[in-house]
User: Fold these one by one.
Assistant:
Number 1:
Amino acid sequence: MDMEVTAWHSLHSTMNAQEDRRPFSRATLRRIGAFARPHRARIGRFLLLSMVTALLAVATPVLAGRVVDAIVRGDDAGTVARIALLIALIAVVEAGLGLLTRWLSATLGEGLILDLRTTVFDHVQRMPVAFFTRTRTGALVSRLNNDVIGAQRAFSNTLSGVVSNLVTLLLTMAVMLTISWQITLLALVLLPVFVVPARRMGTRMAGLQREAAAHNATMGTRMTERFSAPGATLVKLFGRPADESAEFAARAGRVRDIGVRTAMLQSTFVTALTLVSALALALVYGLGGYYALRGSLEPGAVVALALLLTRLYAPLTALAGARVEVMSALVSFERVFEILDLKPLIAERTDAREVPEGPVSVEFDGVSFGYPSADKVSLASLEEVATLDAGGGTQVLHDVSFTAEPGRMIALVGSSGAGKSTIAQLLPRLYDADSGTVRLGGVDVRDLTADSIRATLGMVTQDGHLFHESVRANLLLARPEATEEEIWDALRRSRLDGLVASLPEGLDTVVGERGYRLSGGERQRLTIARLLLARQRVVILDEATAHLDSTSEAAVQEALTEALEGRTALVIAHRLSTVRAADLILVVEDGRVVERGTHEELLAIGGRYEELHRTQFEKPASQEAARPLG
Ligand SMILES: Nc1ncnc2c1ncn2[C@@H]1O[C@H](COP(=O)(O)OP(=O)(O)O)[C@@H](O)[C@H]1O
Ligand SMILES: [Mg+2]
C-alpha cells in the first residue's frame, strides 16, 4: 500500500510535467525543412514519381469501365483484349514504380536519421561538464535513439505517404466528378464526419505519445543507472528493491495503458472509415445502377465510379492515419530540437588561438566562481523535474590569484570542500570563471582552442574514471600514436606493469564499467600511467595518490616526481612529502587563498598551515591513509 502510494506519487509528478498539449509551431516545421533541404533533389524525384503513380492508379478503373462498355455494346474481342493488355501493362509499371518510390523514401528517411543523429551527438559532446552532472544518461540516450527514429518516421513513412496519397485523392476525385458529379458528391458527404475527429484525435495521440516517451526515458534512465556495477551495488547495500520494482511497474503499466489506448484510437478510426467506404460503395451501386437503368449513365461509368471510390478511401484512410503519425513524429522532432537548442555555456571562440610554444605558466587573476544553476545548463525534461532550479550558483571561489611560473610546482592544501578541485577544473575549462581571468602561457583560456588546451594540460582527477574499454584503449586516449614500448614504459613507471602483464589478456583486457574490476589504487595508477604517456607541459594532480597505500604511494610518487620534472604543476596535495617539494604552497579555505609561501615560511607564521601540518600531515601513515587531507 505504502509502496504503491510512493510509486503513484512520483509517476504523477512526471505526468504533470509532461502533459501539455501544445500545438506545433511554425518554427518547428521550418527547422524540419532545414534538415530536409540537403535532400531536395531526391525529394523532387520522389514527388514526380508519386504523381506518375497516382495517374496510373486512376487509369485502371477508367479502363475497366471501358471493358464493360465494350461488352455492353457488343464490340469485338480484339478491343477487349487490347484494353486488358493495357491494364496488365499498367499493373507491371505500377509495381516497378512502387518499389522505386519506396527506395527513394527509405533513403530519404535513413539519411535524415543519419543527419539528426550526428548533429545531436556532436552537440551533446560540446556541452559543458555542468550539463552532464545534471542530466540523466538514460534520458539523453533515449533522445538519440527513440526520438531520432520517431522523427525519421515523419519522413520516410508519412511525409511521403501524405504527398502521394494527396495527389491520388485529388486526381481520383477529379475523374469521378467528370464521370458523374451528382453521385460523387453524394458519395463524399460522409467525408467531413471523419476529417473533423481526425484532427482532434491527432492532438490527443500526440499528448499520449509525449507522455509515453517521457516514461520510457525515465525507465531507460533507471535501468542504465541501477544496472551498472556501482549502481547495482548501491541498491544491494542500501536500496529498497520492492519500492524500485513498484515504481518501475507503475510506469511500465502506464506505458501499457497508453499503448492499448493508442491502438484502440487508431483502429476505431480505421474501422469507421472502412465502414463508411463500404456504405458509399453501396450508394454508388444503387444510385449509379438506377441512372444506368434509366439510360442517363453508361454501365461502364458505374463500374469505373465504384472502382475509383475504393481507390479513394484507401488514400483517405492513409491520410487520416498519416496525420496522427505526423503529429507523433513531430513530438520526436521537438524533443530532438529541444536538445539542439541548448547552447553550450562553454564554447570555443571562432578566432581561438593555440597555447604558445615552450614552457607554460599558469595564472589565476582575481578569479571568482560559482557552479552554474540548473536552468542555465540543463533541460527540465532531461532531469525529470517540472521546472529547473534557478537558484544555487552560490559563490565557491572568491578572488583567487596566484601564478605558477613555467616549470614551477604549486601545491594547494586546505580542508575538504575548500574549493581546491574547483580551482583545478577552471584551468582545462571544465567550467568558466564568473569574473577574473585564468591564463595558460599568458593567454586567457577562453581565447585558446580546446585541442591545444588538451595537448598542453594533463590532469589526474580524484575519481580516475576509466572507459569500459581495454587497458590499451584507456591509455591511448591521451596519445593515440604512442608505441607499445611507450605504453609499457608508462605502466612500469606507475608500478602497474606487473598487474597488467598478469591480466588474462594483458593490455587488451577490458576494464569494467567505471574501471570496476580494478581496485581504487590500481585505477588511479592507470590514470597516472595515462598522464606519463601523454607528457603534457602542464600537469594537475588532484589528490592523485589518495587511494594508494603507503608502499605503492612511495613508488608512484617517484614516478610522479619524474613526470613533474621540468613541467608546470598544480598539485592538490594530502601528503607532506609532496607539499614540501612545492615551490609555493597555497592554503585554501572557503574558496579563498588564506596563506601563501614555502613550507618553512608558512610554518614560521604559525597560522592555518601550521595547524594543518600539526593535525593532518604528522599523523602516522595508517591514520593518514584513512583520512587524507582535503
Ligand atoms: N558540480 C558541483 N555543483 C555544485 N557545487 C559543487 C560542485 N562541485 C563541488 N561543489 C561545491 O563546491 C565546493 C568546493 O568543492 P571542491 O572544489 O570539490 O572542494 P575540495 O576539492 O577542496 O575538497 C564544495 O562546497 C562543494 O560542495
Ligand atoms: Mg577535491
Note: The mean pLDDT is 83.
Number 2:
Amino acid sequence: MTKKVIIFDFDGTIADTVDALVNVANRLAVEFGYIQITPEELAILRNLTSREIIKYSGISVFKIPFLVKKVKSELKNKIPELQPIHGIKDALAELTKQGHRLGIITSNSQDNVSEFLKINQMNDLFEFVYSGVTIFGKTTIINNVLRQKQLKLQEVIYVGDETRDVEASKKANIKVVAVTWGFNSYEVLSKQKPNFLINQPEELLDVVNTSS
Ligand SMILES: [Mg+2]
C-alpha cells in the first residue's frame, strides 16, 4: 500500500461551518451590498460553482477581499461552537494509523483552524496547516506546498467540498476527492469530474487505499 499525503480543505470538509458562514454572511449583507441568504436560496447556491455564486450574489469583485477578511474575523468568535463533520475524526485517525500523512490548505485563517483543531483534539492528526488569502488561488498554494515538501504529484490527494477545490487540484495535476457533506451539492461537484466523489467520511479510507 502506497503511503499518501492527503491535503484537506477546512471549511465544510473537516469543520461543519456552512451554517456559521451563512449566518456571518447574512449579518454582513447590507454592508457589502448583497441579499441575505434564505434556506431556499442556500439550496440554489449549493448547485452553483464558486464563480457562479459570485456572479449571482451581485457583489463587486473589488469588495470580495474585504468581505473574506471580515468573514474570517467574525468567524473567530464562533470557533468554540463549531463541530467537526460527523465521522471525520475517526476517518482521519485511521488514515494516520495506516501511515498516511495529513495536512490542511485553507482560505480561512491559520488562527481559526489551529484553535478549532486544538479544541477538538485534532491537532496531532495534521503535519501542516497552510493558509492562503485568494479565493481562486488554491492552485498556487498547493504548488508551493508540493515544492516545499518535495512531494511527487502521484503521492498527493486533495479533499474538498467545493467546485473551486476540484478546479484548483486539477490545475495542480493532483488527484481530488470531492465530498458532498459540505457546501456544494453532489450534482454540481460531479460536473467538475473529480477523481472520486464521496458522501461519508469513512469512504475516504477506500478511496485513499485504492488510488495508486
Ligand atoms: Mg470548503
Note: The pocket of magnesium ion is lined by residues 9, 11-13, 160-162, 182-183 (CB under 6 Å).
Number 3:
Amino acid sequence: MQRRHFLWTPPALALGAAASPVLAAPSIISSQSPILPRKGKGPRIVICGGGWGGMTAARYLRELIPNSDVVLLERNATFWSGPMSNKWLVDIVGTDFVNRDMLHPANQYGYTLLQTEVNGFERDKKLVRTAHGLIEYDFLILSGGIRNDYEAWFGNDQRAIEYTRTHFPNAYIPNQEMLSLKQKVKNFKGGTLVMTLPPPPHRCPPSPYERACLIAWHIKKNKIPGKIVILDPKPKIAPIGVGYQQAFEELYADIITHVPNAGVKEVDPFNKQIKTAAGDFKFDDAILMPPHQAADMVWKADLIGKDPATGKPTGWADMHNRLFHAKSDDRVYFVGDLMGAISPQFGHYPKSGHVANYIGKIVAQNIAERVAGKEVVARLPDNLCYMMVNGEPQEEISVKFEYEVDASGQVNQTQIDMDVRTPDLVKEDFDWINGKFRDFLGT
Ligand SMILES: Cc1cc2nc3c(=O)[nH]c(=O)nc-3n(C[C@H](O)[C@H](O)[C@H](O)COP(=O)(O)OP(=O)(O)OC[C@H]3O[C@@H](n4cnc5c(N)ncnc54)[C@H](O)[C@@H]3O)c2cc1C
C-alpha cells in the first residue's frame, strides 16, 4: 500500500547553526521565543521520549536524512530498559542490561539530546513546550511510552495514588522505580505477595508472568516462606499460556497461584486489601499494576482516540494504522507503546521493545521518503519476545507474531507460541538484546 503526502519544504526562517550534538540545559530560559537554534538547512525533527522507540527513530533519521536536525527530548538522565529488567530484579543480569548512557549514541549518530520534561504542544505553530522553553519542529514524533492509570482505581485521591506508587511500585515505566522494586524483592522475607495485572492492551503482555516466575525462583532458591498470587483480569494466561501454566505447575506449584477473571474492583493500599471479580484478597506485600494508557504527552497534544460507539477516550493515540501519523495532523508521528489500535482482528501491536524499535525505523523511513518527495511505503513490523521461566538451569519460552495485509487492506496477526522451555532460547534472547542495544545505543 502506498500513499502520497504533502512534501516537506525547508523553513523560510532558519535560526542559524549550532555546533554541539549534545546539549546542556540553556542558561537563559524564555517561555516566549524558541530555544535551540536550527542546525543546517534540513528538516527539524523533534522526538519526545528517548526510550526504545525514540532512540531508534533518532538514529535512523540521522542516517536516512543526513542534513536533518534531529532533537531528542528525554526527562531521564540515562536510558532505562524494560526488557531484561525481570532478570535484573533477581540478579541474573547486571545493571548494564537495564541502565545505559545516552550521550554516547547522541554523539555517535549526531543528534541533539536535551534532558527536559515535555510539557505540551502548540501544534498550530509547530512548537513543543518543554521545561527549558519552546522548541520548533517540522515533524514531531511522540514516543513517550505509557502512563499508569491509577485514576481508574482511586479517582482523584492523590494520597492513595502516591501511597500505592511509593509502597507497591510496579516499575512498568522504566526509571528509578526499578531500584525500589529490586529492593522490595531483596527485602521480601515471606507471606503473600500479590501481583495485579492490567487489563489488555498493556505493556509487554507476557512479562508479568515472567516476573512472577523469576521472583518465585528467587523465593525457592532462598527458601523464603513466601507465596505469589497473580490477579489476572483475563480468563486465561496469554500469550504462551501453555508454557507458563507448565512452569507454574512443574516449577512453582507451592509458590504461584494464578487467579483468572480477577479484574480489580477496589484497592485499599493502606489496609492491604483488594476486591476483584474473582473474590477478595489480603496481602503482606504487593506489586500493583493499574491499567495502562498512552503517555501524558499524547493527551497534552490532544491526539487521543475516541471510541466511535461511546465517544469516550480510547486511552491511546488516534493514528493512521499503516503510516503511524496522527489522523488529524500528518506532521505528528507515533512510535512505540503509546500507539493506538491497528486492526479489528488483533487490536494493538504488542506493546514491546521489539515493536517500538521496528516502528522507530519505519517512521524514520516514512519521514525520509516524504522529505525526498517520494511515495511513502506502508511497512509492517514483526514481534518477538523471550521470557525466562527458570533461573537454574536457565530456561526460556518465547512468542513470535507475524503480520500481513489481506485483500481488504486489514492487517492480520499470526501468533506462534514456543511453550517448551529450553536453554537454547536463553542464548537467542541474549543475542536479541545485544543486537537491539547495538542498533540504537551504538557501539
Ligand atoms: C518488566 C518488563 C519486561 C519487558 N520485557 C520485554 C521483552 O522481553 N521484550 C520486549 O520487546 N519488550 C519488553 N518490554 C516492553 C518494553 O519495555 C516497551 O515495550 C518499550 O520500552 C516501549 O518503548 P517506548 O519507546 O514506547 O517506551 P519507553 O521505552 O518507555 O520510552 C519512553 C520514554 O519517554 C520518556 N518520557 C515520557 N514522558 C516524557 C515527558 N513528558 N518528557 C520527557 N520524556 C518523557 C520516558 O522517560 C522514557 O524514557 C518489557 C517491559 C517491562 C516493564
Note: Residues 1-8, 10-30 have pLDDT under 50 and may be disordered.
